[in-house]
Amino acid sequence: MGKKTSTTGTPVFFGISKDRNAMECEATTVAASAENDSQGAFTITPGQKLPSSGESSDSNMGEPEPEFEFQTARKRRKHMMMIPTSAFGPGSSLQAMVNGIKKQLAKVANIINQPKIERLNDAEGQSVTHVIFEVGTQDQVTSALAYGIGHRTTDDQQEDTYFQEYTTSLIEAQQSRIVHLNAMAWNTKADDVYAAMAVYGAITKVTMGHNATKSMATGKVLFAKSSSVDQMKAEGATSIVIGRDTGTVAYLGKEPLLIDRTLTMKLANLPTWYQPIDVYELLSQIKAPEAERSYHSITMPVNPRTNRYRPEAFVYFANKAQWERARGCKFTFENKASVWVTPDTRTCHTCGSPEHLQQACPVAIKRREILNAKHANTAAKQKPTKATHKVVFVPDSQPTATLRGSASQQSSNTVTSQLSYRDATAQKGKQSIKRVTSATPNKANYSDAPSNK
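Above: the chain's sequence. Below: its structure in token form.
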């Protein structure tokens, strides 16, 4: 392991025994005393254990270790402030207004991150656009509250608008008007969510996002009044129809809508043309008590290659009563019936049957045969054709001279034939191949003889 020198100058070597847990170091020579240093002195004797990394080699080894007090780390407190934009006039550009306010605020406070634009309710209950800033300390907030930003009114008068503190009560009031949606199709637009949620009241803002895997879309809807959220709670809204798709309500204000994952079931063997809106109408036929749905929410997986819904749906339930009512229902279609299976049961991606997979599916086999026949017919129509070339032969025995006269006389003095390019190259050794253009009136054809020009 190393080399240590004794007080007498005699080198002493130590070796580690085979027992690594014991870590016993045996001296191969006589015992030696280690040098005294500032950390303390100790004596090494044959068979003595060296102090481990967790033990102290000081003389005060009997003292207890100090006790540490562990505290939970909390997030940094954010110091926020806001200012309304309604006082700056309707003709002002929002981005130019934000840049002007930011430039003036930077003189008295340190701005952290980018400002946010949100619509908050004023004292009269009307929604007003505010610009929210985050500054460094609470002292900067206090000093900025007394700082007004001047602007011109409609009467061409000078007026100052002052900052306001973005308090916790305002944040809670903001959260009470927000509804969170998830499990939507990845290509869902904000306009689709706006149209679906507008039945509950005036909407201030819709923000779209995606989940961690980018496979589904999420949305956040901010209503103008909290009464819209209260209406959704009274109706027991847990699933919203958005176009042909459905969205799952995750939060109504600050209240989360919980589901029991152990009660999730898969509705398999659905028609191939079924979409989430069809499953929504299908499950709505299950009888349930008033003001209570027969299920919590539904999702249908999408085939990433064809961008079509698979004929199966995952159904989520909030309690055991919903699960028992849905489990006892069986839906019959034209030529097949639905089947309730566990979520981990593998089904056919083509017809949705749990009895076989896609490789043995008769519908998938028939589709592949039709596709292969279509490709074979297309390949047969695209076979290349052999091209022919028109050439004119002039025998070598015939003297070459400049031909004059009409076009009919010139054509009678030439021997023409229609041959393929392969036959022409075979006779190249006996006859010279010359391409002669068609003659025009009052113009002569030129042979290999040199021109008089």
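Residues 362-381 form the longest helix (20 residues).
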